[in-house]
From TrEMBL, chain A:
SUPFAM superfamilies: Glucocorticoid receptor-like (DNA-binding domain). Residues 71-81 have a biased composition (Basic residues). Residues 64-83 are annotated as: Disordered. The keyword NAD does not apply. The keyword Oxidoreductase does not apply. It comes from the Eukaryota. InterPro entries: L24e/L24_sf, Ribosomal_eL24, Ribosomal_eL24-rel_N, Ribosomal_eL24_CS, TRASH_dom. This is TRASH domain-containing protein. GO terms for cellular component: cytosolic large ribosomal subunit.
From TrEMBL, chain B:
It comes from Aegilops tauschii subsp. strangulata. Pfam families: Ribosomal_L14 (PF00238). This is 50S ribosomal protein L14, chloroplastic. One of its GO terms (biological process) is translation. Keywords: Ribonucleoprotein, Ribosomal protein, RNA-binding, rRNA-binding. GO terms for cellular component: mitochondrial large ribosomal subunit. Belongs to the universal ribosomal protein uL14 family. It comes from the Eukaryota. CDD domains: Ribosomal_uL14. PANTHER family: 50S/60S RIBOSOMAL PROTEIN L14/L23, LARGE RIBOSOMAL SUBUNIT PROTEIN UL14M.
Length: 113, 154
């Protein structure tokens, strides 16, 4: 969809094109309201953080935040990634990794003696 | 003077109504803003020297002027050394109106106050600076000089 929805400055609701009131204060600050209800509250100097239906209130009182947080935690687990380093090329590392434990123990005993 | 008298009657009928909200809400009442008509006090937002102008005639619209229209006004308050003096009759272009103006995309714009910029009867600016925000409705009305000098176009 190509239309751009703006957000109401008071309630946080989406303002579709054709709706809404734009109030420009004398200090050149622009306020977008989704309807005359929000505009009326704004002019009566009510705080959106005190009205339970606004987005600001919901954010402040942490409503519906668990669903959002759970969605974000689905990160992929790390896969073991092999790289060659100085001193041991990739084949050497892979061979050493694939050794059986008995073979490794025997090699360790031989080195000790 | 007949047309002036008619304007006056028209003005009284559509004067600004005060709608008071119920007392539990707040003490501040909200006004339904209407047109700029005779006796409307307007702020002057350029450096022509005038401070306040009272509208004596709206040059467009039977009920009054809106955003972007021209009016004729009488200077009520002026700075001591300016291009216009108190008592001058001047033309002005409304650059900010407290009445909502519809935009082509369907939204509405509304400013905090009523303000004009003083022009001559051809539409050329008298001042050299414009203060405060101006709407881009002026572009359609061909007041490009005002837009050029404005510090903030909305």
């Amino acid at each position: 969809m190509v239309l751009k929805t703006e957000l109401c400055r008071f309630s946080g609701a989406k303002i579709y094109p054709g709706k809404g009131i734009r109030f420009i204060r004398s200090d050149s600050q622009v306020f977008l309201f989704s309807n005359s209800k929000c505009k009326s509250y704004f002019h009566n100097r009510l705080k959106p953080a005190k009205l339970a239906w606004t987005a600001m209130y919901r954010k402040q009182h942490k409503k519906d935040i668990h669903a959002e947080a759970a969605k974000k935690r689905r990160r992929t687990t790390k896969r073991p990634y092999s790289r060659s380093i100085v001193g041991a090329s990739l084949e050497v590392i892979q061979k050493k990794r694939a050794e059986k434990p008995e073979v490794r123990d025997a090699a360790r005993e031989a080195a000790l003696r | 003077m007949g047309s002036v008298g008619n304007n006056l009657y028209g003005g009284i009928n559509s004067s600004a109504e005060t709608v008071t909200r119920p007392s539990h809400c707040d003490a501040i009442s909200q006004q339904i803003r209407t047109f700029i008509q005779m006796r409307t006090n307007l702020k002057v937002v350029d450096n022509s020297g005038a401070k306040r102008v009272m509208c004596i005639q709206s040059l467009r619209g039977k009920k009054g002027a809106r955003l972007g229209d021209m009016i004729i006004g009488s200077v009520k308050e002026a700075q001591p050394r300016g291009k216009v003096k108190k008592g001058d009759v001047v033309y002005g272009v409304v650059v900010r109106a407290a009445m909502k103006k519809g935009r082509s995309d369907g939204s509405e714009v509304q400013f905090d106050d009523n303000a004009i910029v003083i022009v001559n009867n051809k539409g050329e600016l008298i001042g050299t600076r414009v203060f405060g925000p101006v709407p881009h409705e002026l572009r359609k009305k061909k007041h490009l000089k005002i837009l050029a000098l404005a510090e903030h176009i909305v």
